[in-house]
């Protein structure tokens, strides 16, 4: 086993190309995650790093490991090969049906948890997560704020099928999933009753989606990235449509793309539907989350 590990680690160390938005992946963590997958004990790259390597009992599993390494080096996302990604302490199922959850989105979830726990929210708070994808935000909020009433929605039937599998996998059946375009799945019975609308929407310019790294463009759904000609089509719709659902004092919480935060903040400050705007910067000083309170 030691010889096989060293051999494959050397291959990955010399050839593996990783993306900045997947900082947890390196040759060793990648190999450990693929090793667990070959042993039919799938783990995320984070969880696999915390556990000992399982024994690959037969030649078929060792060949399977070699195949997984080959596919990773050919550019297939690690999260698709393992079927798992670590997000907010949870090993979430993932696949080509939806965006692979990114570490950067955890900033949005932390901000939402802080609001739900400390901002005079009603109990139970009513939460809506749109563009839910695999459901990672909705399930993370339900996990960390157990008394919250959480619903997720997406326009993609494929993404919702993955979210449904996650609902069972994570044991969070109380999270309700709906299909539809942004807030359309939430009818008049929700008007003025929602405490938090959260969203990590598509925000890449349409012209740039096809130019992203092949590991992204060739394997993840365009629908999860394409934010329209200027990248802000979905963001602007959420600013306009969310006041209908939000109660007085409720919050809109958005992840925004690089460079979009200041403009979104100014747009919200001019909107009479909102009376407080909080731009949140990441460790590099870039505004990546914007919070706005319903007036």
What would you say this structure looks like, in words?
- The protein has 295 residues and is of the alpha/beta class.
- Helix content is 40%, strand content 19%.
- The protein has twelve helices and nine strands.
- A seven-stranded mixed β-sheet has the order 5-4-3-6-7-9-8, with helices on both faces.
- Strand 1 (84-87) and strand 2 (90-93) form a beta hairpin.
**The CATH C-level class name of the largest domain:** Alpha Beta
SSE order in H/E notation? HHHHHEEHEHEHEEHHHEHEE
Number of helices: 12
Distance from first to last alpha carbon: 62 Å
How many β-strands, per DSSP? 9
Structural class, judged by helices and strands?
A: alpha/beta
Percent in strands: 15-25%
Shape: elongated
Average pLDDT works out at 96
The overall number of domains is 2
CATH architectural label of the largest domain: 3-Layer(aba) Sandwich
Radius of gyration: 20 Å
Kindly identify the CATH topology of the largest domain.
Rossmann fold
Name given to the CATH homologous superfamily of the largest domain:
Vaccinia Virus protein VP39
How are the strands of the largest sheet arranged?
5-4-3-6-7-9-8
């Amino acid at each position: 086993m030691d010889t096989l590990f060293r051999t494959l680690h050397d291959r990955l160390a010399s050839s593996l190309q990783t993306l900045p938005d997947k900082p947890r992946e390196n040759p060793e963590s990648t190999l450990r995650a693929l090793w667990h997958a070959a042993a039919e004990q799938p783990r995320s790259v984070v969880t696999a790093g915390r556990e000992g390597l399982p024994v690959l009992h037969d030649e078929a599993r060792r060949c399977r490991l070699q195949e997984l390494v080959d596919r990773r080096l050919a550019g297939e996302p690690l999260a698709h090969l393992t079927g798992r990604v670590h997000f907010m302490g949870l090993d979430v199922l993932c696949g080509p049906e939806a965006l692979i959850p990114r570490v950067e989105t955890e900033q949005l979830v932390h901000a939402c948890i802080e609001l739900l726990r400390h901002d005079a929210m009603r109990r139970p708070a009513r939460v809506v997560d749109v563009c839910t994808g695999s459901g990672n935000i909705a399930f993370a909020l339900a996990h960390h704020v157990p008394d919250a009433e959480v619903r997720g929605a997406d326009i993609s039937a494929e993404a919702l099928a993955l979210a449904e599998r996650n609902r069972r996998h994570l044991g969070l059946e109380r999270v309700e999933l709906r299909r539809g375009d942004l807030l359309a799945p939430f009818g008049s019975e929700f008007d003025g009753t929602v405490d938090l609308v959260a969203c990590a929407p598509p925000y890449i310019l349409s012209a740039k989606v096809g130019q992203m790294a092949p590991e992204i463009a060739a394997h993840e759904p365009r629908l999860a990235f394409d934010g329209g000609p200027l990248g802000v089509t979905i963001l602007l719709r959420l600013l306009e449509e969310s006041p209908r659902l939000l109660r007085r004092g409720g919050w809109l919480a958005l992840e925004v793309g690089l460079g979009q935060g200041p403009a979104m903040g100014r747009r919200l400050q001019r909107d009479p539907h909102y009376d407080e705007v909080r731009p949140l910067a990441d460790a590099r000083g870039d505004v990546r989350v914007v919070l706005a309170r319903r007036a």
